[in-house]
Amino acid sequence: MSVVTSPSQRRFTVRDARELVLRYAVIIALAGVFAFFSLATSTFLTSANLASILVNNFTLLAIVAIAMTFAVSAGGIDLSVGTAVDFASFSFVSLVLTGYPVGLAAIAAIGSGALVGLINALLIAGAGITPFLATLGTLFIGRSAQQLLTNGGNPVYLPQTGVPPLFSFIGHGHVLGIPVPLVIVGLLILAASTLLFRTRFGRVVLAIGVQQSVARYSGLRVPGHIGLVYVISGIIAALAGIILTSTVSVYIPNSGGAFMLNAIGATFIGTTLSRESRPNVPGTVLGVLLLSIVANGLLLTGLSFYWQQVGTGLLIFIVLAASFLNRRGRSD
Question: What does the mean pLDDT of the chain come to?
């Protein structure tokens, strides 16, 4: 007489442990680097440094990475997120400098990001150009346009005095003791997660990202949804431009490009948190936090900028390799 073992009674095997480790590689890596830098430098665990990680390293990259997550969710990529950041920053500074109300300047900045997204939408959904080439073209055109608008790339500074209080509040203010940039990021995480995973629009976008041809044959409006994704990506990236400008009170041409590669890395690190290896907002946020801690920790240890980039690249490779091994192990 054989005894049937129920799934709940199945023994936990070495293979189960391996799959568990590989499945949650990003969380394990996050805990590992946190513990390492806590021991490697005495200043890492100070409240001032942890606050600096969240406000200075995490906030802006999280916003840009969430914008990237939308594009990748639809099966594409957005190399022009930095351009949207820059045009929003330029619009925001220019209008505040000429005396427009901060609220109106912020709306114009968001509109600038939406315009960058709309150009991508027309190229990708309208003209049928691949997302990589379309957004790469927007990136190059955006860089040249910024050079023309600033007489060769000169920064646009706001005066040290006379800046509207609301302008400074965006970058330096607090709500219930929480920095305003972190409040904005928290609200954005909730809104983006809801839009992607709790609405019909989000489910269609994810379906397009998995199999665009099937989605099209199912009668879904693929071009319309893809176009809207890139407009949303531009709008979200514009928020980073507004916060960046409010924090430093200056617009520096092409500064938004510094976020692009890390945003791509954080987005794909975040896919490891999904059993289907799909882009997701919580995973992206964890990826951003991981990269932010590594950047901060390596800086505290005194390594040069170039070695910091090497460390970040190796970390991305290790986490993504763990995800690949996990997928291959499940398919065997």
Answer: 89
Of 128, 137, 114, nearest in space to 230 by CA: 114
Other beta carbons within 10 Å of 254: 18
Is 108 exposed, middle or buried (CB count within 10 Å of its CB: 0-12, 13-18, 19+)? Answer: middle
* Tokens describing residue 214: 């099937």
Residues 106-131: tens digit of each pLDDT: 999 999 999 999 999 999 999 999 99
By CB neighbour count within 10 A (0-12 exposed, 13-18 middle, 19+ buried), where does 172 fall? Answer: middle
Q: How many CB atoms lie within 10 A of CB 187?
A: 10
**Distance between CA 272 and CA 279 in Å, rounded?**
8
Q: Can you tell me which residue has the tokens 């460390």? A: 311
* Amino acid at position 120, single letter: N
Q: Pairing mode, if any, of strands 156-157 and 174-175?
A: unpaired
Q: How far is 213 from 228, CA to CA, in rounded Å?
A: 18
- Helix residue spans in 122-199 (DSSP H): 131-149, 165-172, 180-197
Distance from the Cα of residue 174 to its chain's centroid: 23
pLDDT exceeds 90 at position 216 = no
- Within 10 angstroms of residue 10's Cβ, the number of other Cβ atoms is 9
Q: What DSSP character marks residue 175? A: E
Helix (H) or strand (E) holding 55: none
